[in-house]
Amino acid sequence: MKAIQVAKLSPDLSGCEFVELPVPERKPGEVLVKVHAASLNFPDLLMTRGEYQFKPEPPFTSGMEFAGDVIEAEADSGFRVGDRVMGGAKTGGFAEYASVPVRSLRLMPDGLGYEPAAALGAAYNTAYTALVELGGLQPDHWVLVHGASGGVALAAVDLAKSMGAKVIAASGSPDKLERIAQLYAPDAVIHSEGRFREQVTEITGGTLCDLVCDPVGGDIFDESTRCVAFGGKLLVVGFAGGRIADIATNIPLIKGFSVVGVRAGEYARRFPERGQRIADEVARMASAGEIRPAIDRVLPLSRWRDAFKAMDARQLVGKVILLPGS
Ligand SMILES: NC(=O)c1ccc[n+]([C@@H]2O[C@H](COP(=O)([O-])OP(=O)(O)OC[C@H]3O[C@@H](n4cnc5c(N)ncnc54)[C@H](OP(=O)(O)O)[C@@H]3O)[C@@H](O)[C@H]2O)c1
After folding, report:
1. Which residue segment(s) compose the domain that 216 sits in?
2. Within this chain, do residues 130 and 228 fall inside the same structural domain, yes or no?
3. pLDDT of residue 269
4. What pLDDT shows up at residue 304?
5. Do residue 104 and residue 146 come from a single domain?
6. How many C-beta atoms lie closer than 10 Å to residue 291's C-beta?
7. How far away, in angstroms, is 233 Cα from ligand 1 center?
8. Do 187 and 235 share a domain, yes or no?
């Protein structure tokens, strides 16, 4: 089968290859899936460099998220041959076949195609965990979402709008903001280079934001500490900008806000019932058309390098999908 293999860690994808590999052998407790569509997530890129918190030993097959058909499963797995499934483990998805633990798969919601199904879980489950589960999102809340063109952030914009909140989408690119406005009609958009606290103050009529969703970190985090309302929450989702910010603890004290660490995957592992509820609700909302994953482009697996480079160069608005079968 065709697969994207990380043969060695490299800063520039030079250690990654499009290779022919044997179909993985299904181990006990796993389900073998024929992958129809896989989506790229930022951690996939970080893992090629050895910069993600999970550090698999090369060689490994890249790809943490996909949708496809069950080829082989144990009788008591809850899955049958031919079931349409989505999910994925931390690796293995950028291939024609993937064998992953039973618990990391779920049936695709009714009415959803393979491409949106492959784009759903990582982004929307993370956004839901951040905004709803940990943030306590309410319909009257002001929500500021940074790096809004990214997979997780764009899902946060979609989700928050769908749940009736007032959303400010912030991005480093004015062009991308136009596209985000077309996709999800946030209540306001801001260009987040430099200072943006005055804009947030003006947009919210001085109340500032109940929730700030930050997958970028660095200067964006620093400036965001001036944008959270008293009693609000600054949700730390990631560090796509590359710098992990420091915060003087007098700032959240004086301004009366909380800094909340979001680790969606670990949250679902530690609290499986809550994780299940989150995934169920995301699947229900997708099936009902209440949320719609934005797909920037769809490429054959052989063009994996273009996909990774587009993500690295911040060219995407939403997800990029790789098709192993074409
Ligand atoms: N906490 C969790 O549970 C969890 C789960 C999944 C992912 N994450 C983390 O969340 C972050 C986003 O993941 P993702 O899959 O949504 O990634 P993504 O699709 O690549 O989005 C990242 C966005 O961050 C913004 N950005 C700002 N500075 C950047 C820089 N120097 N390089 C790249 N992007 C930059 C860009 O938005 P603009 O151009 O619009 O500004 C970009 O679209 C990553 O750090 C990832 O590890 C965390």
Report:
1. 123-265
2. yes
3. 93
4. 98
5. no
6. 24
7. 19
8. yes
CB distance 263 to ligand 1 below 6 Å: yes
Output the CA 247–ligand 1 centroid distance in Å. Answer: 20
319 CA distance to ligand 1 middle (Å): 11
Residue 36: the pLDDT is 98
Residue 85's domain is classified under what CATH number?
3.90.180.10
Closest C-alpha residue for ligand 1 atom 19: 150
At residue 281, the pLDDT reads: 97
pLDDT, mean of each 10-residue run, the chain (326 residues): 98 97 97 98 96 95 98 97 95 98 94 96 97 97 97 97 98 96 98 95 98 97 98 97 95 97 96 96 96 97 98 96 91
Last residue of some domain: 265, 286, 302?
Answer: 265
Report the predicted TM-score, pTM, of the whole model to 2 decimal places: 0.95
- At residue 224, the pLDDT reads 98
| Ligand 1 nearest atom to the CA of residue 236, by list position | 1
Same domain, 132 and 68: no
Dist. CA 76 → ligand 1 center (Å): 38
Is the distance from the beta carbon of residue 173 to the nearest atom of ligand 1 less than 6 Å?
Answer: yes
Structure tokens at 211: 């929730």
Task: Please work out whether the CB of residue 152 comes within 6 Å of at least one atom of ligand 1.
Answer: yes
